[in-house]
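PT: before anyone asks, these are the final sequences, not the draft ones from last week. 1616 residues across everything. Please model them as a single complex and drop the result in this thread when it's through.
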Amino acid sequence: MAQVRKIINDPVYGFITIDHPLVMEIISHPYYQRLRRIHQMAFASLVYPGAVHTRLHHSLGAYHLMGLAISELRNKGTEITPDEELAAKIAILLHDIGHGPYSHALERKLIRGVHHEEISTLILELLNDKFGGELDLAIEIFKGTYHKKFLHQLVSGQLDVDRMDYLSRDSFYTGVSEGVIGYDRILKMLVVHEGELMVEEKAIYSVEKFLVARRLMYWQVYLHKTVVAAEKMLVRTIDRAQELTAAGIDLPVASPALAFFLKEHQPDGNFLRHLEKFCQMDDTDIMCTLKQWGYYIDPVLGRLSRGLTDRRLLKIHYRNQPFTDAEVQEKRQEVMERLRLNEAEATYLAFAGEAKNTTYNPANEHIRILFKNNRVADISEVDNALIMQHMAAPVKKYYLCHLR
Amino acid sequence: MAQVRKIINDPVYGFITIDHPLVMEIISHPYYQRLRRIHQMAFASLVYPGAVHTRLHHSLGAYHLMGLAISELRNKGTEITPDEELAAKIAILLHDIGHGPYSHALERKLIRGVHHEEISTLILELLNDKFGGELDLAIEIFKGTYHKKFLHQLVSGQLDVDRMDYLSRDSFYTGVSEGVIGYDRILKMLVVHEGELMVEEKAIYSVEKFLVARRLMYWQVYLHKTVVAAEKMLVRTIDRAQELTAAGIDLPVASPALAFFLKEHQPDGNFLRHLEKFCQMDDTDIMCTLKQWGYYIDPVLGRLSRGLTDRRLLKIHYRNQPFTDAEVQEKRQEVMERLRLNEAEATYLAFAGEAKNTTYNPANEHIRILFKNNRVADISEVDNALIMQHMAAPVKKYYLCHLR
Amino acid sequence: MAQVRKIINDPVYGFITIDHPLVMEIISHPYYQRLRRIHQMAFASLVYPGAVHTRLHHSLGAYHLMGLAISELRNKGTEITPDEELAAKIAILLHDIGHGPYSHALERKLIRGVHHEEISTLILELLNDKFGGELDLAIEIFKGTYHKKFLHQLVSGQLDVDRMDYLSRDSFYTGVSEGVIGYDRILKMLVVHEGELMVEEKAIYSVEKFLVARRLMYWQVYLHKTVVAAEKMLVRTIDRAQELTAAGIDLPVASPALAFFLKEHQPDGNFLRHLEKFCQMDDTDIMCTLKQWGYYIDPVLGRLSRGLTDRRLLKIHYRNQPFTDAEVQEKRQEVMERLRLNEAEATYLAFAGEAKNTTYNPANEHIRILFKNNRVADISEVDNALIMQHMAAPVKKYYLCHLR
Amino acid sequence: MAQVRKIINDPVYGFITIDHPLVMEIISHPYYQRLRRIHQMAFASLVYPGAVHTRLHHSLGAYHLMGLAISELRNKGTEITPDEELAAKIAILLHDIGHGPYSHALERKLIRGVHHEEISTLILELLNDKFGGELDLAIEIFKGTYHKKFLHQLVSGQLDVDRMDYLSRDSFYTGVSEGVIGYDRILKMLVVHEGELMVEEKAIYSVEKFLVARRLMYWQVYLHKTVVAAEKMLVRTIDRAQELTAAGIDLPVASPALAFFLKEHQPDGNFLRHLEKFCQMDDTDIMCTLKQWGYYIDPVLGRLSRGLTDRRLLKIHYRNQPFTDAEVQEKRQEVMERLRLNEAEATYLAFAGEAKNTTYNPANEHIRILFKNNRVADISEVDNALIMQHMAAPVKKYYLCHLR
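LR: through. Structure below.
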């Protein structure tokens, strides 16, 4: 047998098996390997030192869950051809391929005018060319244009394998064990009914637990105030660098690719020609640059950069009501006086904003329960539901961030 | 109470508690924070994608185990003062502070003439100055000059908390569950007898298991042939870069600090004045530089660098007998012809060497068993020992590495 | 040192340490050892085959958590004397000492007129006599009469170590991983304020998760319909046996102690004189008797008993509305015809009832959150609470159980 | 679809799936359900309180591993038909069906003249009759007469799924985490070569770890001196009961089935007619009887029985040399004087013996390694083997057991 068969150790699932040559080729491609150098959780490791896992690892994990999900659905009689299986697996493997350095934090900041999902699509199409059209079906599933809707819902939906993997993996690597979601049980309860992905009645409690675990992960980890402070600092660091650059200052930058996007790139509706350059960047370009900016003469750029490399973060306060202009202004004034900065400069070191998360929004999210009698209901509508209408409103927290 | 008390989540141990202001200050120091950017296992993540944890995380873990070990010994009547406890904890916290980028792989290559333990000592002394002598006792324990020998043995010995943490942590993050060592049971069995660290009789099987697990981790992970191939490639990449530099070529380098050590630094017996610069480097400087070298015109530097960033590694063979000159030469010839290189160049892409590991060497290692009747014996001498004399000889494997 | 120190392996917590001679003596007492033979989860193992752990193991686990809780509270400045610590640990160690065979299922059935907590108190006092009054303080804490209220709240309250252990242990042994509650984080967040046990503000999400996990464990495990069917069958089996006995039939019973409580014991307000006999019973008396009744000539007793020993359970239906008399009657009629029974007999094999559980009832439960500004609020009253007023109403499910 | 599909939660493997009606019927049979009441580890729970899992759970686990093993072998090109798969699964499911109460301890004691594997075969044949010959192939595989030898080797051999499950499960339930064997990796490395089961070359370290873990489990758990003391006490309790019975004394016994085997049964070469009675017994008959004997007038029977129910065990010493007759006699003398017993009686309470275990015996055990070049070698013959010739000799420990 000329069969490909590679087994990858994964602390979360034990083993991940790669058994198709096309999957192997995709994984071996430099664009995919680049994901080794993009952290899944950006600056969360400043709070949870174990959370240094990568987007490569996450997407391999999601690929593994896709295999389990498909196998479960087939056991329940849903027809999925080998081609569809392969395509769905490739779609999830590549769902994050368009992420840039410190993805969520820097999105729309470093690369203006282009969303990471557009970049993903561009890269998918580029790879499709390279692989002679073998990714056609994967792209259809990714975009949601394929007629078997449930395959797209597995890639991107309320109970998709992306979420299942990142919640499982992030809770594993942070050590926040309450974030554990019981992905295996939910997978066992998935079912396709009238072409749509649903869960069986007996999964109700597991799905409730899933939503509550997600809520907990948001507030305890993803929107942890220290993590948010670091991400906001990074955004402001890039802002400041671009401002200084615009003023004609030639800042040191660790790589030509990052230098291009920081200093030259203008959105022009034709991102395709910058794609190769984009794919040369990852978290190391940013971090290696921040280390140099930490010694730079501009006090704003220096403080922010050193703050990130040395974990000397701005102080951040959370509360349920917005901070008033006066409150923000007071902090800014302090900064101006202490560091002898003007107000524009002080704004980089004292600012306010909001963080929000919605536990479950039945308006645009749909976790459908299939009852034994074939009735279908949204999880927010079942008797004695824990997940209720009032959860549709996002929970907001307001923050004030300032120099210590 | 003005008590410091910080709880850090750790997926391996649950929680790590920091409860002394000096420990907090050390952890907050930029030299320590730098360890966030040095991977504990260098290129092992090319085989085990989960193994991306950092030296910061490892040293926090070892610090945690030190606390447990001290508490166990105290429960058994060994006197350890609060100052000694603090010092031992600081010694282990800082035991890896002198590691540079891709530590084991690049040691003695990037910084010639200085060993990482010398650098650790220099940094410890520098920090001691900064902290007004508060690290005196920690340094004594670190160096092994303190009269309570067992404290040094906990930092660096056959059953030290360094090994216990790295074996536990590395097996956790790689997912190689057979590497699990049962650190908690061994800790419970530690005992101090006549000033030396030993284990109680009933720990024999656990210690055997520990040694076998370590043996397994070496051959399955640390000396995994793919990992070894990557490390050897990195060494040769640096060699080639230094050769090209010596030939007057000005290679791009991501940071001034790395540029200094690659291009200018000469061992001069006074490393202290370069320490600050040394501490600006970490894995990101190397990786960000490799990405640029991957596009460089020199085919040797280009292939090696791209090989590391894109995981297109040299092929590697392991066997129990050395490869002959003829075998190596044959591979070199192939490379010369395929890439039109001269022999010196081809040597970078086809070479041989050896990897070795000793399971237990009673000549210089000592795991002492304390029997109930107060008899002390080396573990290799107990009845029915699994760990025998013949294990004193190192197991060697010979490799041949060459372009695919 | 004449110190007692025994380490017990526990798969849930790693190690449990016994380090006081009085605790050791209590554990060694036959009344405590009897708990080895009472399953923690009665018939849950018919659904979850791993759930065969014992009340002895659970109470050792709760004892372990009590130690951790006390140590945390002390670290936060709450004064707890060594005597109080010992007493609190003993109180929790013995909190289940009064359980009889198949405790929850058979309570108030086998021993009429006496509640298991009364029996616990009687046994505690008996042991206190034996140990020369050394259990005085433990009894005060157990009963809630000791002035440091929080100690009783740790034994029996909304966040007591009893619940923390049984939820952790039951989810561990059933393999229902979503039931995991993160006991370690909650313990770290406990605090005593104005003499009462509370949790710190940052524990809100963990406590929410705890309540949701408990809710899940109730419906997925404790009130799993198959488990409920088995428990109801056991109750009816005992009913039938007592009815036959009352009719003068001399049923075989595996032990004299069980024979006494089945055939002779009458509630007389003086249970103390039966205590020794009571403590001779455990799950094996019941199971060994059921095996004999399975061959007995009475078809009702035979079917019920064999159903339990051979896992041929009655069929059970759950729904949100009560079953009507007509529905129950129909099933009963079927049984009467099939087995040629009279209606009274058929009632044992076809019956209805209800199972209920309350997620969080702020009326009588109190999980208090201590905010940073020293404000105290019930968890149901914090902003954006998941745990709301409407959860005060118990969730009820109605069942209909009948011969297949 | 009339498909059977039942998912069972297992804390060790997550989920076990039953997907064939015949397997379901076998599991539902009272003979199989009886295994719920036989502890896998007999008295090990006296030392490891978590180790109360049952033979039913173990055999379900082994069945699960058989499915994984077969699926791996098929992936590697070994042909295994669906009928063979089903038969191999049934063979392992029923491999322990012949165990009686406190199996290993009481074997050849309670049922004299018949080995538990003979009883297993008898029961297999009885079930085969009941199921109309559907177990024919399973019986062939069980007995080792089927031409595909590797299927029998999976049921019973050096790397069979029975061992893999019991080592995994026993280490899980005892909490002796060093016993963990990495079953999943070994399963991935299984291969069939020339009709025999082997492991691939790269599994060498895992198999070494497996053997060392097994060695550890033997000495730390199965042959733990306290466990051995309890088992020897049980044997002597039965001996004494049979002696008293032979002397005409009518001891109380909890069940008619146990009474028959204790008092009446004589080996007569026709065990088949006692099979039904045999299958009525389990651990509860013994335990419920011991509780009654604990109050019996005979001091030997009383002490031994109470010792087991109340965990007041005989004292046991282990050493590497046999105890001399004089040493044993001295202890016996003490007992005679203290309890005013004659020598024959004292022998029950003071006796010596031996416990032994062989790490790896290449003479009759064969773990074969398949090298990449198709060479096959026994694991004890590979280069640098940890598992050596000298391990062929059993390790013996000698014990002396006596009243405290």
